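TA notes, week 10

Several of you asked for a full example with nothing omitted. So below is the full record: structure tokens for the whole chain, then the designed sequence directly under it. When grading your own attempts, check the secondary structure regions first.
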């Protein structure tokens, strides 16, 4: 039986964490361990936050043997699965349950991120998920980055604001390959809906690099307890901007350890730079998407009111 997580489930989950398979869902913020029983997740469940969490459990003979947990990406039209603790057919049933809930809740896109060697990829494909992007996770050595990369005199880095969305979308359109944009958003509206925005602002910061008129780079920094993670986006040919963004990312996470960088497979220059700086590639991940069927609302005649 599959049902939503209830408060009465917390005690058995806390007392017997080893009864469930390990979590194979990976958050976009890196490799940090996510748990539906963490204080942040519990508040996302039961407080009226903008970013809401949903969790379902798989029960056999009264025991919880499987679990899936997800949160919206800052917009109710897109959900991100960041906790998947299950095996085999239980995984398929849990993902099908999530899909049904997404369809009835007018959610258009479901995202799931798994390690490339995860046994759950087969079950996710059976449930209708398709891989669309490969990411590599690197462990950064801060000292080597600070010593090797110079500061830029051409551009300035500043916190991103809502007014930057149009120019950021232009950068995204120019840099990200079409197959990835098809999954994550071909239009400005779709792109805004699928951008992952955590419920806790202190865990996520964004910066833009450029001048008053142009944006040539974007940096997203995530922190979770002791660790830090960052992502970079800029033109692959702009080596100066890439180096400055990498150095600024390490500076902003200087109090965290370890520090990770998530680089997409299409970011060839970033991958080369990380390798040259002695960073260790510790994981390869696949991003998967499932587009759900949402019931369309047909137009109808309405009476005119004076």
């Amino acid at each position: 039986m599959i049902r939503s997580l209830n408060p009465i489930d917390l005690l058995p989950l806390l007392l017997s964490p080893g009864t469930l398979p390990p979590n194979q869902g990976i958050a976009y913020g890196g490799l940090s361990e996510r748990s539906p029983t963490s204080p942040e997740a519990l508040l996302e469940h039961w407080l009226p936050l903008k970013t809401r969490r949903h969790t379902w459990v798989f029960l056999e003979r009264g025991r919880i043997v499987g679990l899936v947990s997800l949160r919206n990406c800052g917009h109710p039209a897109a959900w991100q699965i960041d906790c998947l603790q299950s095996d085999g057919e239980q995984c398929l049933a849990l993902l099908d349950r999530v899909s049904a809930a997404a369809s009835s809740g007018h959610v258009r896109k479901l995202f799931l991120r798994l390690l490339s060697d995860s046994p759950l990829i087969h079950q996710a494909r059976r449930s209708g998920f398709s891989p669309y992007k490969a990411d590599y996770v690197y462990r950064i050595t801060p000292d080597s980055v600070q010593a090797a990369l110079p500061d830029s005199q051409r551009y300035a880095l500043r916190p991103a604001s809502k007014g930057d969305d149009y120019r950021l979308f232009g950068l995204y359109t120019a840099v990200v390959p079409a197959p990835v944009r098809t999954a994550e958003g071909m239009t400005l509206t779709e792109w805004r809906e699928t951008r992952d925005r955590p419920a806790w602002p202190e865990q996520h910061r964004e910066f833009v690099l450029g001048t008053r008129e142009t944006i040539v780079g974007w940096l997203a920094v995530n922190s979770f307890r002791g660790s830090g993670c960052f992502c970079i986006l800029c033109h692959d040919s702009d080596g100066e901007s890439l180096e400055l963004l990498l150095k600024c990312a390490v500076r902003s996470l200087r109090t965290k350890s370890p520090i990770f960088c998530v680089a997409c497979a299409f970011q060839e220059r970033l991958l080369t730079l990380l390798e040259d700086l002695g960073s260790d590639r510790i994981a390869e991940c696949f991003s998967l998407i499932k587009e759900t069927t949402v019931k369309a609302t047909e137009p109808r005649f309405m009476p005119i009111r004076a």
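The first helix runs from residue 10 to 15. Use that as a sanity check on your answer.
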